[in-house]
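Moderator note: this is an archived Q&A kept for reference. The question asked for a predicted structure of one protein chain; the sequence and the answer are reproduced below.
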Amino acid sequence: MFVRRFAIAVLFIVVGSPAVLAQGLTDQIPQGTVIAVQVRGLEQAQERLVAMANAMGDGLGDAAALGINEMKAQILEGRELRGVAKDGRVVFSLAAFPTGPEALAAAMLIVETTDYAALRDSIGGKAGEPGVKVESLPGGFDAVTRDSQTHYFVKRGKFTIVTEDRDSAAQLAKQKTTTPIKASKRVAATFEKGDVGIYVDMAAVNREYGEVIAGFKEQFAGLVEAAAGAQPGLNPEQAKAQAEMTRKIFDGMFTFVEETTAVVASGSFEKTGLALSLFAEVKPDGSSAKFLSLLKPGANPLVGQLPDGHQMYFGFAGGQELYQAVSGLATSFMAQTGISGKALEKQLELMKEAGPHSVAGAVRFGKGLSGVSISTFDKPAAALEASLAGSEASAEAKIPGMKEVKIERNVLTHRSVKLSKVTMQFDFDALAGQAGGEIAAAQLRAFFGDGMVQWLGVTDRGLVQIMGPDAVAARAALDQVLDQKRVIKQDEGFAEAMKRLPAESTLVALIDLPSFMSAILQQMAGVAEGIPAIEPPPGKPTYFGLALVGQSNAAELAIWFPAAMVGQFMQMFQGLGAGAPNER
């Protein structure tokens, strides 16, 4: 019963927050395990979790400690777990998916042990206690029965295996060494590096639930077609193009699930926040592996060189191979806007010739949309021409919701940089007149105003694109790019987030979520009733971060959630719009 209670508690805690395993420890996890959950030291993990919760806000650490202690008391029935080191690893493994009590009855608890007898007695009960029977069974394992519930204990070096299934215990005791799960070094390393963790055998998931996944895929295809046909502003041809594009994206996602062999997640409770890592390994000969091989990671140094004062920052180390791979998808996306195929082919060919490498950008929502991006190319001047060619194609096309696209080449020179100007005038009134378009038009106008102005030019840093309403804004943004005096890498919260993410990644994104959410709610408050115009909290910005790292037949998604951000959200929603001076 102890193993079942522990199983339920661990699954409740960890399935919602990713996980860990260790070299040496993975050798103890039996082959055929479909789910394994691990904690690196029950006492240590609790201390680190409480410290992190304390940093999130007053009283949260005490609440976390109280909840954990209550759960421990329920699992152990008031007894103290002994014989386990403070940092000793504890693993719960399942050989079948938890569909009922039978699966949990065959579960195993694998404990890194300092005192086998102390652990056995604290879980099962000590010989001589009322209702407790301790037996040393033939085959070299123990059985402890208390109140008609029997647990079996197998000592394996510094590990102890606990199960309610006698046959499993007998087999493990007979084998002397475990035939472990087939985990690659990358899977084991990800499993190893955090405070808590989870491993899932995705090959087993696909065997067990393959038909269900296929059913979801078919249902989703029908929903995509229905949604595209109902979207205001699209003619039948454009709706068809959008449906095809969306289907390609989600077909790829379903294929990725079908070709994934293992998923591992790890989570570390740091004093300054929660660091998560999600790792997926796929079949080496599938289409997913072929695509992942194009996601070559890079250092993304341009992100830190972007001007400060924005809410969202991103960097993408794509390269030419990835650009070619996604150009077909880009063509499908642009086709739904009404741009001719020849114009698209011309733009994509020019961009290919320019030799794309990496791009970094920053965006801010407020009164309209502003931002800046820097892109590196073998031939940045050719990339500028490709971008302007795309704008010219947009000017000739009948794009839903677009009144006019105006291109002015070399209209502004600042510090020897010639900037071209692209002005996009939206036609939200026309969109509002269509069925279901009124709300969409109001929302788009709230975010973008009646138009958007983009400035493009070539500098020694690469192709610079600036979103700003006028020449004053364009000059100011260009000065920041060229002078590098007020750049985001100097921000404390940004630097902390970047430190917690991989040094090299295919894609990295950092978001000042409190400020971003405040801007969204303020814009929506003017459009929809009942939405409060909440001000951002006072103080320095904090950044939620994520990074995608492509590898050979694998991908990792690293996530950073700063503890201080929880307190900021609490301040925001407690005040409900009562703003205070802030540094955003």
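Archived answer notes: The longest helix spans residues 202-230.
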